[in-house]
């Protein structure tokens, strides 16, 4: 599906304090989820999957060095993942790419008993949720 549907997300842009760290964590995750590099410039990069793209940019206009998901604004992004086994594979590989598992005592059901997901946070405080499309019942 490359033609967007009315109302679907066009793009998401992250302003990051360190592009290298963001490429190592978020860039790795996007590629692993099937996104391909779309644009690249000195201060940023973007990846596309279908009609939607995600941008990482180290902007000189940043007003803080760390993202705080507890402040007003975006708390996290959630991505569909093929199945529970794929979620667990991503969790196993994520630590090598700057991610730490959130709520490890509740994993993989921090979102509820019928919700197989992983909540990851990178070094800069960005959170992603990886949700299994097909969860074991």
Secondary-structure blueprint:
Blueprint: E1 11-15, H1 19-32, E2 36-41, E3 44-49, E4 52-57, E5 77-83, H2 84-94, E6 99-101, E7 117-122, E8 127-134
Parallel strand pairs: 1-4, 5-8
Antiparallel strand pairs: 2-3, 3-4, 6-7, 7-8
Commentary on this structure:
The strands form 2 sheets. A 4-stranded mixed sheet has the order 1-4-3-2, covered by helices on one side. A 4-stranded mixed sheet has the order 5-8-7-6. The longest helix has 14 residues, at 19-32. The protein has 137 residues and is an alpha/beta fold. The protein is globular. The chain has 2 helices and 8 strands; from the N terminus they run βαββββαβββ.
Element-level helix/strand string: EHEEEEHEEE
Q: Mean of residue pLDDT? A: 92
N-to-C CA distance: 29 Å
Provide the structure class.
Answer: alpha/beta
Q: Percent of residues in beta strands?
A: 25-35%
Strand order of the largest sheet: 1-4-3-2
Q: What is the total tally of β strands?
A: 8
Number of contiguous helices: 2
Described by strand count, sense and barrel closure, the largest sheet is: 4 strands, mixed
Give the helix level as a range of percent.
10-25%
Stretches where pLDDT falls below 50 for ≥5 residues? none
- The 3D shape can be described as globular
Kindly provide the radius of gyration, computed on alpha-carbon positions and rounded to a whole number of angstroms.
Answer: 15 Å
């Amino acid at each position: 599906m490359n033609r967007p549907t009315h109302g679907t997300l066009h793009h998401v842009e992250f302003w990051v304090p360190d592009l290298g760290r963001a490429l190592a964590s978020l860039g790795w995750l996007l590629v692993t989820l099937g996104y391909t590099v779309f644009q690249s410039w000195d201060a940023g990069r973007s990846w596309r999957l279908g009609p939607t793209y995600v941008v990482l940019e180290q902007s000189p206009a940043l007003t803080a060095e760390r993202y705080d998901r507890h402040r007003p604004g975006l708390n996290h992004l959630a991505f569909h993942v093929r199945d529970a086994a794929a979620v667990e594979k991503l969790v196993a590989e994520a630590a090598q790419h700057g991610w730490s598992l959130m709520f490890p005592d509740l994993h993989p059901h921090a979102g509820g008993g019928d919700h197989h997901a992983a909540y990851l946070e990178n070094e800069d405080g960005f959170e992603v949720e990886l949700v299994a499309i097909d969860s074991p019942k």
